[in-house]
């Protein structure tokens, strides 16, 4: 997903997406340990997407805190 698409999602949707990606990363790591992983670069892509989502969530919480103060 691109950053523009992620910014359009709500915080709940972002948290759900992050949970799904982390679960997929876990499955890929398990495949990697057993030697069955076909596309190792997928782990890197997922890790970056999780980081994007966490950045957006952090930005929104900081913006909400600044608005409240």
Kindly estimate the percentage of residues that lie in beta strands according to DSSP: under 5%
Strand count: 0
- The portion of residues assigned to helices is over 70%
What's the mean pLDDT score? 95
Label the structural class. Answer: mainly alpha
Identify low-pLDDT runs.
none
Largest sheet: none
Overall 3D shape: elongated
Order of helices and strands: HHH
SSE layout and pairings?
Blueprint lengths: L2 H5 L3 H24 L6 H28 L1
Helix pairs in contact: 2-3
Write a brief caption for the model.
By secondary structure, the chain is mostly helical.
Explain this structure to me?
This protein is mainly α and about 70 residues long. The protein has three helices and no strands. It has helices at about 5, 10-35, 40-69. About 0% of the residues are buried.
Q: What distinguishing features does this structure have?
A:
69 residues; mainly alpha; 3 helices; elongated
């Amino acid at each position: 997903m691109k950053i523009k698409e992620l910014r359009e999602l709500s915080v709940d949707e972002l948290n759900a997406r992050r949970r799904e990606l982390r679960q997929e990363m876990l499955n890929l790591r398990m495949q990697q340990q057993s030697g069955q992983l076909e596309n190792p670069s997928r782990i890197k892509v997922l890790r970056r997407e999780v980081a994007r989502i966490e950045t957006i969530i952090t930005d929104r919480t900081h913006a909400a805190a600044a608005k409240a103060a």
